[in-house]
Fold each of these.
Amino acid sequence: MSDGIGMTGRTECRPWRLTLALAGLILLMAGCQRAGMDHPPADPAPAPPPEADEAGQLVPGQERDRPTLPAQQLQGGVLPVPHVDVTGVDPILHARVGQDPHLRERAEFWATFWTTRSRGHFERYLDRMGAWEAFVDGELEARGLPASLRYLPIVESGYHHSIRSRAGATGLWQLMAPTARDLGLTVDGVVDDRRDPVASTRAALEYLSLLHDQFDSWYLALSAYNAGPGRIARILQRHAPDPAMPGDERYLRARAHFPAETREFVPRFFAASVLASDPERFDLPPVDPSRRVVFDEVVVPDATSLDVVASAAGVDEEEILQLNPHFHRGFTPPGSERIVRVPQGRGAAFEVAYAEIPASERISFTEHRVAQGETLTHIARRYGVSVAELQGANGNLDPRRLQVGQALIVPIGGAPATSEAVQVAASNENSENSNTQPTIHVVASGENLWTISRRYGMGVTELRNKNGLSNSSTIRPGQELSVANGGVRVHSVRPGDTWGGVAQQYGVSTSALARANGRTPGDVIRIGEEIRIP
């Protein structure tokens, strides 16, 4: 992240406004504090969560610098309860447990923190929220879940669809891989559905619903979402074992024994709900509904590169990548029908164009036959991919079951390639006659016209025409193809160069430039490195 917790936008705080605005968390019945309810003392700042500067929590060493609340805010009115649905009553924010003094005090702390030192971060959360709020609201309504859960991604990820915590939790809802798989999401070397705002939202809401059914309390469900249901169940068994006790009361009794981060989780959720439900009251920018992401959904029957999707839809590849961040290798998985998103209004055009692309030319991959003594690690290194990506492309292949002669799909989209074909191309490029003689490509096993055309920044039609091939022609290993005429342009990376800057300089797309070099736009380029210009 480029800016730390202390670097915010506006830092002016209006205590009178916060005091007046924070009034309703005690609109609940006044006598709800019962004998036997354990209320822990105010916690110190929690241990830093993953990606602290994007999750809006404190980082190590800043505890002593926490913003403090004026005394009158602790004695008089406190956080208002936002009206987040048509009835004005939310089963989380309007529950009686919301009167708990400790919860109110910690919620005030976070409200102050997000409107002072971390204001800049919270403004970005609200901006990103505009992209997916309408979709999340629709999913909540369809399931009959509390509308206030729309604010949970603020606490979890700042509404960032692909952020990853130090513990490995990923996406808008910060799901761990085992939990995501249990909920039916795919997490492997090719696809990570946790990065998909649509699929992850549906899975997270299903999970929250299951947690509520298990604990009969939204407060316990939220705590279990953060700490894990097994851990919360064990704490309850020890410190609030009576199953006849109302779930919210069990939460209050056992809360002191929750992990520090989990004790802070519900107050942070309350504070985020207050601020995001009425941001202008706190001089925060309103959620912008015009940021809403809209798209068409199309179905691809098998492995397909996202640049093929972009070409068929008639849009830039970057648009497809932004709409489909869960295909993190740049293609859909082999042997699986998948939904892919294209910009709104492009679905019909895609279906027509995609049907005309031969199945053999829809994906950038090659085939590798396992040789004696080879392991997945050896093969992955040879092709410049990770073992996880190699496993994911082959149905989560067990490396212990690798057999000599076995055919493996090797995803090469976006990966540095070291195949014979690329070595031949490099040799031709470096020859002194490369500026005047055609470059020859020797077809390797598993290659097709699409993978070859991608290598050299050509279109498939151009490659066919250059080699006198018809639409029905096939190519075979060892066949020589002419892939370029004229000079090969090379750019030597200078200080300050980026993929986008170099692409603009030469009038090519960023994705095409990276692809021509066997890379992705996210890869680092170094000063002095030579980049091939397609």
Amino acid sequence: MIYKKTFGTPERFVPTAFAPEPKAEIALMPDEIAEKIAFSAGKRGVKLTLALEGDTAVYGFGLQMKEINHRGNKITLRCNADPSSRTGDSHAPVPFFVTDKGWGMYVDTARNAVFYCGSELNRGLKAADFEEYAESEFVDNTRDLYADKTRENAALTIEVPLAEGVDVYYFTGESILDIVSQYNMLGGGGCLPPDWGLGNFYRCCGRFNEDEVLEMAKSIRDQRIPCDMLGLEPGWQTRVYSCSYVWSEKFPHHKELLQKLTDMGYKVNLWEHFFVHPTAPVFDALLPFSADYYVWHGLVPDLSIQEAQDIYASHQRTLVEEGVYGFKVDECDGSDFTGGWSYPDCAVFPSGMDGEQFHHLAGMLGAQTLLKAMGERETYSEIRAMGALCSSYPFVLYSDLYDFDDYLRAVINSGFSGLLWSPEVRQCSSKSDLVRRIQLVAFSAQSLVNAWNYDHQPWLDFEAANEVREMFEMRMRLVPYIRKAFIRYKEKGVPPVRSLVCDYENARHIEDEFIFGDMIVAPIRPEENEREVWLPEGEWVMLFDKKEYAGGTFNISTDKIPVFYRKGKEPETAEVTQFLPF
């Protein structure tokens, strides 16, 4: 059940003001729940406090790449292109969390909210009340002391800066999955990509001209490696930092190129970002609807204004009409904390929004704008920032960071917050690195190789075409199964990719496996050939070799990726030839 309560006077620019209509029943928060939440407002903004019992685990907060259970951490939800620690910075910060005690909470804000997940409250106890501590042993291992995040009198404290009030949505459910699914329905339900979006995606080198793009497309077909989408990187434009959205001289016959690629069975995707260069056809029209700061000499349009959305979308629609099926939206997260580019939080937008709020809302507003440009054409696109209540948008997150463990944690964490994430394959240091990354990406929300800096396919460096073909063919065979998972996402809010703890409450200790549809995936890291696997009670079958396993913990050694389905529930598949466009 979802309960809502308004504390104080909320701000105008919040995610629910722009999100799709909820597809969930929302009731007024009853007193017995409201009384658990202490509220105050002052010079620092809004403060909410509620108790955390015992060892309550806390999951969520968007695309977190450094940790899964945030109990004991201070999480500051800042939009940041290069998050380097477990402090909350993220491509997609989301002020929603879920616990393993049957409740979760969404705080409707576009601020850099701070969540203290387990601070000790001073409850006014006298010295005599601490008698039990007088005889406690001295702790001489500070590592153990610091690692203990349970703490008595623990509270979850939330600060929303600058605000005078906030709407709070409190969720109850029988499981973490139940609560997460309700949150996704609050955002309008999940997206349902077209079948071609569920296949495989290859992004070409950014230096390519149209002949080189066509040669690459033919080479992939000649190797009979399944591929549905082909992406063009920044070089397709005359200006890219900021963007002109005009075809460069390297693509003098771009319309013919798009038609040839379409005839070969590819759906073309174009790289761009929302900072508008003076040579862009829409620059002058967008000038009155832009912030008081440039980024890379380009306008930052206020896409919360419908007229600004229409102007931007009108030009992108010409690209769609020429044969484009999607976009890769880069640089919309900002890098104020690690790189210094982007607009400041104090920027002023014509709508009255400030830069801090726009950082949190830019992904949602940009997705809405590009969906206008797509019209009736289906898409499954990429974006580097999202936020709260974005489950219904067919956009997949990606990152410029590249650590394998970070990418795996992002796969697991994305499902807690209504987000889709691709651990895309870029440069690789060895054949093992390439193959293990290909295995992981083939069982993610989007199977993507991003060869933006390669003038050839990365697998050619390691004579690994056969391994890549095998994994991409498996992805294609699983399209019917993946489609069903996305249908459930759309209709019931169940994330197609999610943590084990969503479905199995006794899997709290497992942080390197995840659920894909209903199968359990246990990736093996690069340069390794074995790992320990945990499976819930029951009988399980390995997808690749059909070996049977009982529930429990065991070691497995394989050059494949360990993927398991319940015995008697083999995933629906199709012949690869049904999907191959050649």
Amino acid sequence: MEHEHKGINPNVLYDKVVLGMEKDLGSKLWGKVPQSIENIPELITRKTNKTSKETLNKLVDVLRDFHQTNNVYSEKVEANLLKIKNGSVFVGHQPVLLGGPGFIANKIAALSAITDELAKHNIHFAPIFMIGDYDGLQKELGRTYYPNPISGNATILDAERAIDVPDDTVIHSVNVPDEKWFLEILAQLESSFNGFKKQVKVSDKRKILEERFSHIASFLRLTHSYSKTFPDFFVKVWGYLTNKLNDYGIVFLPTSLPTIRKLYGSALFKMAQNHEIYVHEFNETYNWISSLGYHPTLPKRDLKYLPFFYECPCTQFRVPLEINGNNGHGKCKNCGHTIDIPIDELDSFMNHIEKIGPRVDSSQVAFQDLLNIQVRISGPGEIAYYTIVSPAVRAAGFETPVFFKYKRVFYNTPWNEKLGKLLAQRKQPSLHTSELFKLVRKRIDAIKNDDLDNFRDAEISMDRFINATFQNLGKYRTKLDAQKYLSWMFGQFAPQKFGQEVSWVWIDMALQTGLNDYIPTYRRLYHKYSIPGLKQFINTMT
């Protein structure tokens, strides 16, 4: 099959463009690629939203009500809602159990930092976090992970047994499991935490960690008790941390509200009308990227491909559609229901819009014109998708934003530091050496001295140091302590995993920072000179 082609992940191409190694490829693939956060303002093309005033007023009214209903509204949210008329900085993620992994906080921090930097240049955009609740329930959305204190395996916090719906049921229709399940999960989390806590010998530090765990547990209990669905739980977690504990004024976008879908439906219709142009450019880019030795992470599209799903009225199961004459046609694998929706006339298409959700390559398009998205913050996965999606989207008549790849973050814990120093004493690879803290200090000094060259050198050197340590430590993976360090410190509890804030539920780092300083810890990572992508280390210690 086409998508089994072997090669390098194309998000590596983005890194080469950022570091000046493949400059010409940036404009051909993603469009405009910034060299730093400071570079973004000069790449902005439009500072006013072309969407009609009437449509924007409807959108703002819906979003205001959503934030007030979920108790994540503030004066700053209101101020940012009114900035939608200018444009937006955009990021998103699917709702995940317990709020999900730490990189969601990382995305929010980058969102806040970039929006603030633009404001310094008199560019006032709304910071938008898209809740991808149109996606289907998968294991990775109903499961999250915490480090295991006795091995390199993960402690799995899972809702699979407690959710009685088939995989690929749309996530906005899935209820959170009941209190009995929640208390079992909390007990499981506490048991793992207690295993780590025993390694903290200083009583004052141990007491601080206990207090923070108690605070987090109380917060989650309250959040769970006021949540009905997965998206409810998700937005209450992140909305409270961003807009209540920290006054960031993040605007959360619930993509599956019927009123929201009516506002983005015309964009999906336009994409369906231009599907042949889209598919042709998609496949041309696919072939070209493959010829360079890269492995596109989406399969080729055929001419029957439609860029959205239909939610089966019987089961809320997501049904992929393909073109059949003037209709989008599909059949529900769960109940056998046959679906046909007209795609040749806008009004007829819009009669079905409340049941239509975007796919991975149309989620950007759905909101591009509505929100005048000028900057999109993405991780390696999205950057790889958009390597082939962006040229196709532009060919189909849509604009694309400036793509900024957020940083992968590694952070300290008492048990990671203890184990890391032990490995270093054995002459085994470890981040916990004098080199790590020299690089941390070099970056801090560069900020104090406003030294761009030393700042960039410190970021690039840290990225290389983390990568080299990880690669070298892999030679010792048969040793138990090396397995633990690869898991706890690098998040590699399975071969495809890499990164603490990618692997571990956000609670892991929040225990080191406390709830109040959790997202600000990420936020301080982003500086005007920050290079997109690369890996960084935060010295979080209790």
